[in-house]
Amino acid sequence: MLDHLFLSVADVPASVAFYERALAPLGIVHVHDYNGADGPPGHPDLKGFGSNHRIYFWLRAGAADARAVHIGFVAGSSAAVDAFYAAALQAGAADNGAPGPRLHYDPRYYAANIFDPDGYSIEVVYKSWQHMQSSSTQEPIP
Question: What are phi and psi of 45, to 5 degrees?
Answer without folding.
Answer: -65, 145
